[in-house]
Amino acid sequence: MARTVALTPEQVPAASKSTLDAFTRNIGFTPSMMASFAQSPIAFNAWATLLGSLSKALDVKTRDSIGLAVSEVNGCNYCLAVHSFTAEHMAKMPADEIILARKGHASDLKRSAAVQFARKVIETRGNVADADLKAVQDAGYTDANIMEIVALVAMYSLTNFFNNVFDPEKDFPAVAPAGSI
């Protein structure tokens, strides 16, 4: 049950309106998470800016895979549904790749290294071992790329935490619990 309300277009604060309207145009509807998050123009616009900047990091399959892995660790069913949907429809990832990503892996070795590292970052709260850092470097990621992975982990964790706290209405197809995949 939702712990906060999704704002109607008339209720959206003026400082959030243009950002929310842009998402609505791009997605084709207004996700309840965004209509709820828009209550705080400061937090919502900061997240939207970070999302926009990080949409240029790495490639879409790697970004979606990281989102799936982080959301799985954080137990965010809303984000798992969103990332599963976008991975399938936007990144064109097959169902088995989506499941692998949720488990912290990928069939592509380079992407798998990034996803495994992202999972280590969230599981250890950033206290990764030297071997974890070396593994992602050995896969071909630069320090700048690794910083982008860490930033993606933080951004996805922000929405995971928001959704876990406020439990917005689900408006994406639900996914099976990890235990059944």
Describe the 3D structure:
InterPro entries: AhpD-like, AhpD_core, CMD-like. Residues 44-110 form the Carboxymuconolactone decarboxylase-like domain. This is Carboxymuconolactone decarboxylase family protein. Pfam families: CMD. With 181 residues, the protein is mostly helical. The chain has helices at residues 14-27, 32-37, 41-54, 60-74, 77-89, 95-102, 109-124, 130-138, 143-166. Helix 1 packs parallel to helix 3 (41-54). The longest helix has 24 residues, at 143-166. The mean pLDDT is 94.
Summarize the structure.
It holds the Pfam family CMD. With 181 residues, the chain is an all-alpha fold. It has 9 helices and no strands.
Largest sheet composition: none
CATH superfamily of the largest domain: AhpD-like
Low-confidence segments: none
How large is the radius of gyration? 16 Å
Q: What is the N-to-C succession of helices and strands?
A: HHHHHHHHH
Question: Strand share of the residues?
Answer: under 5%
N- to C-terminal distance: 25 Å
Assign the CATH architecture of the largest domain: Up-down Bundle
**CATH class of the largest domain, please?**
Mainly Alpha
Tally of DSSP β-strands: 0
What would the CATH topology of the largest domain be?
A: AhpD-like
Q: Any idea how many domains?
A: 2
Helix amount: 55-70%
Please state the average pLDDT score.
Answer: 94
**Count of DSSP helices?**
9
**Helix vs. strand class:** mainly alpha
Shape label? globular
InterPro entries: AhpD-like, AhpD_core, CMD-like
Pfam family, one: CMD
Domain Carboxymuconolactone decarboxylase-like: 44-110
Protein name: Carboxymuconolactone decarboxylase family protein
